[in-house]
Amino acid sequence: MAEDRTQQAPRPSLSRQLLPAVHGLLARPLSSYYLLLACSGLLLLIGLTMVFSATSVKAYAENGNAFSAIANQAVFALLGLFAFWVCQRLPAGTLRDLGKFVLGTAIVLLCVLDLLGALNSVGLLSKPRIGPVHADLLWLYFGPIGLQPAEFAKLGMVLWGADVIARKGPALGHWKELSRPLFPVVGLLFVLVGYNDLGSMLVLLALIVGLLWAAGVRLRIFAALGVLGLAGISLLIAAASGGAGSGQTGEENYRLARLTNFLQPIDQCDLNGPCYQLIQARSAIFEGGWFGVGLGKGALKWNWLPEADNDFIFAVVAEELGVIGCGVVLTLFSVLAYTGFRIARRSQDPFRRLAAAAITTWLVSQAVINMGGVTGTLPITGLPLPFISAGGSALVVTMAAVGMLASFARAEPQASLALNARPPARWVRLVWAPLPPLPPSRRPSPAARETAGAERRR
After folding, report:
1. Residue 150, strand partner residues
2. Torsions phi, psi of 140, nearest 5?
3. How far is it, in rounded angstroms, from Cα 162 to Cα 172?
4. How far apart are CA 205 and CA 70, in angstroms?
5. What is the pLDDT of residues 357-406, one digit of tens each?
6. What does the record list as GO biological process (predicted)?
7. Exposed (0-12), middle (13-18) or buried (19+): which is 246, by Cβ within 10 Å?
8. Among 9, 105, 261, 266, which has the highest number of CB atoms less than 10 A from its own CB?
9. What is the pTM of this model?
10. What backbone phi and psi angles, to 5 degrees, belong to 129?
């Protein structure tokens, strides 16, 4: 009996099996919404875990309670979830109306913060305090309540800038339309924020670039923005010698030192001076290896690594969770970037499209600047890592921005049609989020229908 020599078809590779499944999941109407919830929720969970790991030793030494710092962070996380819930429920028209009030409040707070710092630096005030209001570098305190005005400036710029650009529409191709009132307000914000915080000013610059890029502004305008940005950074670096920010008159310019130390080889840098923080961060990354020393077992957070719970928490992640943990964080931020720009691309409303692009650019650029400073690939700017670093104002404002992205994701045309076709239970709409508006109908106007009918009759 002859043998059957027919060859079996080769089995498809794993990648070919997974790609159709991934495409199928991404093609679902609410995929953007669930991707956003998943990546932001996991980043928040990682942040709470790492803040507890980075602060437990110091909190126990200072307060006798290892949970005191994480308890404060958990309170701010709950406030951030509330801000997320509120912003997810607000319609686009309300967000557009709120933009000018949020930005105006941020400008007033920044003016108060810079004024107190300037009066203290010239000797008119012994301390940056007037009554219950006092300043502490980036923080402005009203009695026991402290906040960072620069964080609210980012949020206000997103809402107000997206509203202004959406109203101008095609007129943005002319310089005079950008000069009234976008560029003057942007210049004022750069000065007010950059006086104390050069890192936040760079994030604001990236945010503005994201707004204008999503609006389709000509490339020559970006070139002009780049020149103005470099000039502004140079002036702010020079102003640090005169007392701007945490600088002192007659002392070493700390902003210039950060740039020069970044450009110098490690063996030529003062290891006990400005390079100490960078060396300790690199040491933490080296000690972590591929899999880390174990969660909670890091040694450099025992007061060896300054700002271990805030600006340099990525070094704690690298030491305790290794390259694998850092890869997970990078992957989640990559998913956040993909999801945010996907929401912007799919939004039909110009305001939603611009605001989504600006929020995504803001969060991703801040993460890149922070991780670049920790690893030594970028100068240290003192920016927190979104979702993960300890801090109150930054976390609450970040969660509010993610809530807006979630609202925009639910308003995508396919998502809106799916939600309205099979609406969830009434209590879900009341407790979680209302139904998004239906996308505008694409039916032709009466004049267009009449013209089409005449063509067919011919």
Report:
1. none
2. -120, 125
3. 12
4. 32
5. 999 999 999 999 999 888 888 887 778 999 999 888 899 999 999 999 99
6. cell division; peptidoglycan biosynthetic process; regulation of cell shape
7. middle
8. 261
9. 0.88
10. -145, 135
What pLDDT, in 10s, does the model give residues 112-147? Answer: 988 888 888 777 887 888 888 888 878 888 888 888
What percent of the chain clears pLDDT 90, i.e. is strictly above it?
31
- The SS3 call for residue 140 is strand
Spans of all domains in the chain = 36-244+254-433
Separation of alpha carbons 354 and 214, rounded Å? 6
Cα angle for residues 8, 10, 16 (degrees, 5° grid): 150
Peptide bond into 29 cis (omega under 30): no
The 10s digit of each residue's pLDDT in 23-44 is 667 778 788 999 999 999 999 9
SS3 147: strand
Do residues 162 and 194 make contact, with C-beta atoms less than 8 angstroms apart?
no
Helix (H, G, I), strand (E, B) or coil at 129: strand
Residue pair 215/354 in contact (Cβ under 8 Å)? The answer is: yes
| Range with the poorest average pLDDT among 17-21, 79-83, 339-343, 425-429 | 17-21
Nearest Cα neighbor of 338 from 411, 409, 404 is 409
- Residues forming beta bridges with residue 136, ordered by sequence position: 139
Task: Give the Cα separation of 408 and 426 in Å (integer).
Answer: 21
Contact 340, 40 (CB under 8 A): no
Three-state secondary structure call for residue 380: coil
Reading the block at residue 261, the tokens are 């130390």
Rounded CA Rg of the chain: 25
Q: What is the pLDDT of residue 354?
A: 94
Q: Are 278 and 294 in contact (CB under 8 A)?
A: no
Mean per-residue pLDDT, 52-57: 88
> Does residue 429 sit in helix, strand or coil?
helix
Contacts of 337 (CB under 8 A, 6+ apart): 360, 364
Tell me which residue has tokens 């605001």.
355
- Strand, coil or helix: 136: strand
Strand partners, 140: 135, 147
Burial class (CB in 10 A: 0-12, 13-18, 19+), 34: middle
Taking the C-alpha atoms of residue 336 and residue 313, their distance in angstroms, rounded to an integer, is 19
**Helix, coil or strand: residue 404:** helix
DSSP-based three-state secondary structure for 289: coil
Task: Kindly report, residue by residue over 69-114, the tens digit of the pLDDT.
Answer: 899 999 999 999 999 999 999 999 999 999 999 999 999 999 998 8
Evaluate if residue 177 carries a pLDDT over 60.
yes
CA gap 26, 47 in Å, rounded: 27
The average pLDDT across 411-417 equals 88
Residue type at position 119: L
